[in-house]
Write a structure and sequence with these properties.
heterodimer; A: mainly beta; four-stranded antiparallel β-sheet; 49% strand; globular; B: mainly beta; six-stranded mixed β-sheet
Chain lengths: 114, 113
């Protein structure tokens, strides 16, 4: 079945370490996104990518980096510059150029900084 | 600026009772509106969406929503709630293509027996 796979599901990090969250999709979608979810704040957009080798900052990009070398993959690196990285991270994708705007989500990765 | 407001942080309903979750949006043009549902520790799943046409839209799991332009609202309803409906519900608004989807803070639904 087509879908979005995020890994790892749970991740623990010491302060000062960079960590990379994986996101892979086999939906043949052009656009991919990373959202951060904190209790009571909904979802906030970190980065998004409309096509391979191109990406744009979202509303809270500071302390994060991404790459889009393949259509299927959109990894997110949480750097040591991110002051409060403990959160639930969601990857999503959507069809490029479609008017639907519907997002398809992975199951998320929970990052905890010790 | 675009925004989405879900006035209720949490709601508790009895199983079998009706449900209405409120959503108000602020958007300059005709909005693309969505409701998503999230079970604990999971990703979000689309319940329904509105782009144009009939203002009452049907979704999965027996949910429906009504778009009211005059009230800038897109409330989610279900006539009879099941225990499995307990989850968090997010209203969202997007521009064309969905590159900028704005989510509300969510409403957590509790279902009591």
């Amino acid at each position: 079945d087509g879908g979005i796979t995020q890994s790892p599901k749970y991740l623990f990090r010491k302060e000062g370490q960079n960590v990379t969250l994986s996101c892979e999709q086999n939906l043949n979608h052009d656009a991919m996104y990373w959202y951060r979810q904190d209790p009571g704040q909904g979802l906030r957009l970190i980065y998004y990518s409309q096509i391979v080798n191109d990406f744009q900052k979202g509303d809270i990009a500071e302390g994060y980096s991404v790459s889009r070398e393949k259509k299927e993959s959109f990894p997110l690196t949480v750097t040591s510059a991110q002051k409060n990285p403990t959160a639930f991270y969601l990857c999503a994708s959507s069809k490029q150029g479609a008017t639907t705007g519907e997002l398809f989500f992975g199951e998320g990765s929970r990052l905890t900084v010790l | 600026a675009q925004s989405v407001t879900q006035p209720d942080i949490h709601i508790t309903v009895s199983e079998g009772a009706s449900l209405e979750l409120r959503c108000n949006y602020s958007y300059g043009a005709t909005p693309y509106l969505f409701w998503y549902v999230q079970s604990p520790g999971q990703g979000l799943q689309l319940l329904l969406k509105y782009f144009s046409g009939d203002t009452l839209v049907q979704g999965i799991k027996g949910f429906e929503a009504e778009f009211k332009r005059s009230q800038s609202s897109f409330n989610l309803r279900k006539p009879s709630v099941h225990w499995s409906d307990a989850a968090e519900y997010f209203c969202a608004v997007a521009n064309t293509g969905g590159f900028k989807t704005i989510f509300g803070a969510g409403t957590r639904l509790f279902v009591k027996a």
